[in-house]
């Protein structure tokens, strides 16, 4: 059995190739189906010591479709093309972040 090459990994799903918009939409649909609140965050780095990411606008409390969230991801990508961008899902009952995954990496990575 061969091990994976040593390289930097980023959050959930990081062992997979970059996700297509259709695959991102499926993950966002899961967030919505679970009743979690989607939000988009961005940061210049994805270092493990970097705990605070900047929130893109407010969390999408009223999002009912994946297209609403994807359009905000696209807007964030166009505004910050050289930043890491991730989608997070918040649980309003537990008052915490349940999941997050990278949807955009700068071209230098």
Descriptive account of the structure:
The chain has 109 residues and is of the alpha+beta class. It has a single domain, classed as Ribulose 1,5 Bisphosphate Carboxylase/Oxygenase, CATH 3.30.190.10. It is built from 2 helices and 4 strands; from the N terminus they run H-E-E-H-E-E. The protein has a 4-stranded antiparallel β-sheet. The chain is globular and about 45 Å long. The relative contact order is 0.24. The mean pLDDT is 87.
Largest sheet, strands/sense/barrel:
4 strands, antiparallel
Instruction: Name the CATH class.
Output: Alpha Beta
Strand content: 15-25%
Spatial ordering of strands, largest sheet: 2-1-3-4
What do the pLDDT scores average to? Answer: 87
Helix content: 10-25%
How large, in whole angstroms, is the Cα Rg? 14 Å
Task: Give the CATH topology.
Answer: Ribulose 1,5 Bisphosphate Carboxylase/Oxygenase
Distance between the termini: 27 Å
**Whole-number tally of structural domains:** 1
Shape: globular
Unreliable segments (pLDDT under 50, ≥5 consecutive)? none
Taken in chain order, the helices and strands follow as HEEHEE
CATH architecture: 2-Layer Sandwich
Output the CATH homologous superfamily.
Answer: Ribulose bisphosphate carboxylase, small subunit
The number of E-state strands comes to: 4
Number of helices: 2
Q: Which structural class best describes the helix and strand composition? A: alpha+beta
GO molecular function, one term: ribulose-bisphosphate carboxylase activity
Family: Belongs to the RuBisCO small chain family.
Pfam family, one: RuBisCO_small
Subcellular location: Bacterial microcompartment; Carboxysome
């Amino acid at each position: 059995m061969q091990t994976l090459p040593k390289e930097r990994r980023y959050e959930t799903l990081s062992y997979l190739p970059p996700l297509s918009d259709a695959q991102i939409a499926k993950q966002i649909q899961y967030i919505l189906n679970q009743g979690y609140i989607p939000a988009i965050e961005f940061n210049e780095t994805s270092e493990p010591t970097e705990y605070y990411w900047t929130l893109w606008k407010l969390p999408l409390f009223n999002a009912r479709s994946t297209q609403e969230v994807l359009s905000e991801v696209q807007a964030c990508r166009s505004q910050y093309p050289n930043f890491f961008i991730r989608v997070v899902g918040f649980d309003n009952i537990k008052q915490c972040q349940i999941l997050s995954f990278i949807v955009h990496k700068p071209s230098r990575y």
